[in-house]
Amino acid sequence: MNFVASDKVKKMSASIFQEVANRKLAAIKSGKDVIDLSVGSPDFPPPGFVVDTLIDYAGDASKYGYTLAGIPEFNDAVSYFYQQRYAVELNPRSEVLQLMGSQDGLAHLASAIINPGDYVLVPDPGYPIYEASVNIAGGAIYPMPLLAENKYQPKLDEIPLDILAQTKMMIISYPGNPVTALADKAFFEKVVTFAKRHDILVVHDFAYSELIFDGNPQISFMSVPGAKEVGIEFNSLSKTFNMAGCRIGYVVGNKQVIDILASFKSHIDYGVFYPIQKAAVRALTSDFTFLQTQVKEYELRRDVLISGLKKSGWQVAKSPATMFVWARIPAGWRSREFAFELIDQAGVAVIPGDAFGELGEGYVRIAMVQPPERLTLAAERIDEFLTVYSRNN
Ligand SMILES: Cc1ncc(COP(=O)(O)O)c(C=O)c1O
């Protein structure tokens, strides 16, 4: 028998990530030292008190059952965290929903909200699950270009009215992945007005809410007046507390949407392991000195990487946030070719920008998931690579 993937699966763009992973493995197998800056999985450990909590509860054999929608204490902790960190008041019972990572919610939301044929406005470039989730739900994508000259904000007034009439949802993310730009309150206010006018659900992905550099404000979409009427916000402990493998996150905001997603999820999963929930509660209610230290460490990595690349003549914009650098590649290259040659020739793995949409062509995404010394070494290797393989002349 011959089994083939469904049309929906065929539409998904995972192949580039797989190809990078395969190249990386092949290079390692051939004896090369590869500096892996491809996957956005934090190399920092979680805070010690989080690990201790997990260990304590993992020893309790009575806590291995299904947890379904989660423990109320988790919702209280999220509500506390949002109040403390972003000055946002949330009703923990009705405006917070636990997720198995924000990916879980992002992957399922479109199926819970849209009908086949409904349009969803999606950023291009954007994090791949945005588009994939709409494809799974049978929806139609309208890409919103994120261009440097527009501060990486979509031009909402350029979206055709006939598309807007069929649009049910839009996804935005500030700071985002791979585009690391921040938004100000004025932009979020514009989004609220736009959403009200066209009856569109706004989905804000705030997964990098605690990796914002240079003292820039951490603005939750939920802090803008009217946001709860039109939208929801995803967040996660993956990057904030380095708990990516624990699979715990949450969504906050509009009660009706949270109810719909909760009902959809009740058919799909049976909740997060109890000790992980307790560890998350511990993290969200800590005194947050861990977060202040961590953001400085990422900031240092960014500075080391950017200045290292500058020495090679590759001028890359300084990320204002996140664990990524979104780098316009040197002239004469296509993204994939550049990324693949970097692995093969320089032993540095990054993700080609077109993995994130058509407008990602001409860029690569570099994840700052290695210590400063390794980032310096990566920049030196890139320098040698660009000297040998320069296509500028
Ligand atoms: C922008 C963005 N949103 C969501 C996620 C999903 O994270 P998690 O499911 O671990 O919360 C990621 C992971 O890399 C991401 O980069």
How would you portray this structure in words?
By secondary structure, the chain is of the alpha/beta class. It has 2 domains: 137 residues, Aspartate Aminotransferase, domain 1 (Alpha-Beta Complex); 224 residues, 3-Layer(aba) Sandwich (Aspartate Aminotransferase, domain 2), CATH 3.40.640. 42% of the residues lie in helices and 14% in strands. The protein contains 14 helices and 12 strands. The protein has a 7-stranded mixed β-sheet, with helices on both faces. The protein has a 3-stranded antiparallel β-sheet with strand order 9-12-11. A two-stranded parallel sheet has the order 1-10. Helix 6 links the parallel strand 3 and strand 4. The longest helix has 23 residues. The model has no long low-confidence stretch (mean pLDDT 96). The protein binds pyridoxal-5'-phosphate.
Small-molecule components bound: pyridoxal-5'-phosphate
> How many distinct beta strands?
12
**What integer value in Å does the Rg equal?**
21 Å
CATH architecture of the largest domain: 3-Layer(aba) Sandwich
What is the CATH topology assignment of the largest domain? Aspartate Aminotransferase, domain 2
Tell me, what is the CATH class of the largest domain?
Alpha Beta
By CATH, the superfamily of the largest domain comes out as Type I PLP-dependent aspartate aminotransferase-like (Major domain)
Task: Produce a short descriptive summary.
It contains 14 helices and twelve strands.
